[in-house]
Structure formats: C-alpha cells, structure tokens
Design a protein that fits this description.
By secondary structure, the chain is α+β, with helices and mostly antiparallel strands. The protein has one helix at 12-68; strands at residues 79-86, 93-101, 104-112, 117-124, 160-166, 172-178, 194-198, 215-223. An 8-stranded antiparallel sheet has the order 5-4-7-8-1-2-3-6, with no helix packed on it.
C-alpha cells in the first residue's frame, strides 16, 4: 500500500465555483454592453428628434417668408418724352412720346397752335433747343448715313418721322409704330436727341431734309418715368 501512489482527483466543487463566477461575469458584461447600447440608442434618437424639429422650423420659416414676399411686378416698357416749345415768333406747344413695343417704338404726338395742313416732323441729332431758331438741334438724326425719305421707307434717316397734319383749329395728333427708332440700341436710340416741328410739309424726297422750311418748335427727348 505504501508503494502505490494515490492520484489526486479534481475537485468538482472548485470547478463549479469558477464556472459560476465566469457565468456571472459574462452576464454582468452583457448587461453593461446592453446598457451602453441603450444609452447610445437613446442619444441617437434624441439627436434625430432635435434635427427633425430644427428642419421643421426652418421649413416653416421659409414657407412663411415666401408667402409674405410680394410677387415681382413685370417691368414696364421703356418710354421717352419730348415737351415741345415754340421757337421765336411762334405759339405752338405739345408733347411727343416714344414707347417701346414688341415690333418697334410707338410714336404719339399731340400738338396745338399749328397752321392747318402738314408740317415736317423729325428727330434731330442733338438734344439742344437753346437757339432761338432751334438750329442748335443740328441736322436730322442719321446714324446709319442714309438718304432722307418717309417713315415707311427701308432706307431713311432714323429721325425721319414724316409729317403731322393739323386740322382747322391747329391741332395735330399722330400715332404710329416706327421700326427704326430705338430706345435701347446705343446707335439708333433717340433718347437725348430732339424733336423738331417745321413750318412746311416734308415732301419726303428732297435732300437733305425734305424742304420742310423753318423750325417752329423743338423739344429734347428724355427718359420718362415708367408707370
């Protein structure tokens, strides 16, 4: 019996304790991980809610501002006007308006104090009516260097507007669309030029000005206030 070595048997009691301790540690670790995950999830949810609230606020502000912003009004067409003043010894008066339209410029003239019949009616090159006889207005406005003609001619001075016809009371009204006058093109714009009315009719063929006689009224063409 003394010569036989005894073999130590493992203690199932101590192994069970270690197993139980490991199981407990795993559960504790699992609970801690689950707790952190829940906290992260709650934080993410809170961040999402805050972002959603902020986005909703910004959208509501944007829609409110858009609703309160008045709609832009369409821009009015360009318009210019000349107020006619008589030259020395004459008594006429009137206005000439130029309004941009789709296919050109609409010319409207209202003049009083004329002798009955036709009177030459032109745009001249300078916006200067200071001379007593309006000679300071220069020649017909002719930036394209064409011969004098009537308003319907293909080749004409840009300033050739033909005649205004006065009735027995001396009143003249004219309205037509001119296809060469411009209010925007620098070369053919009449803004800053002048309108001159003549004593005689324009024959629309004599050079350089239609043999229309003396200048009896002059008005500088200026940009009008758009309505």
């Amino acid at each position: 019996m003394n010569g036989v070595q005894s073999t130590a048997r493992p203690s199932f009691g101590s192994f069970g304790l270690r197993l139980a301790a490991y199981s407990l540690e795993s559960k504790v670790a699992g609970c801690d991980w689950t707790s952190r995950a829940m906290r992260n999830r709650n934080a993410n949810m809170n961040s999402f809610r805050a972002s959603l609230i902020g986005l909703t606020f910004l959208l509501s502000v944007g829609f409110t501002a858009q609703a309160q912003t008045p709609a832009e009004k369409p821009s009015a067409p360009l318009k210019a006007v000349a107020v006619l003043h008589p030259t020395g010894g004459n008594k006429l008066s009137g206005t000439v308006t130029f309004t941009e339209v789709a296919d050109g410029v609409q010319v409207q003239a209202e003049i009083t104090g004329l002798t009955p019949g036709n009177h030459g009616f032109h745009v001249h090159e300078f916006g200067d009516c200071s001379a007593a006889d309006a000679s300071s207005a220069g020649a017909h406005f002719n930036p394209t260097d064409k011969p004098h003609a009537g308003p319907d001619a293909t080749e004409r001075h840009v300033g050739d507007m033909g005649n205004v016809e006065a009735d027995a009371s001396g009143k003249a009204n004219l309205e037509y669309v001119d296809h060469q006058i411009s209010l925007t093109n620098d070369r053919q714009s009449v803004i800053g030029r002048s309108v001159v009315v003549h004593a005689k009719a324009d024959d629309m063929k004599s050079q350089p000005a239609g043999d229309s006689g003396a200048r009896i009224a002059c008005g500088v063409i200026g940009r009008a206030k758009n309505q």
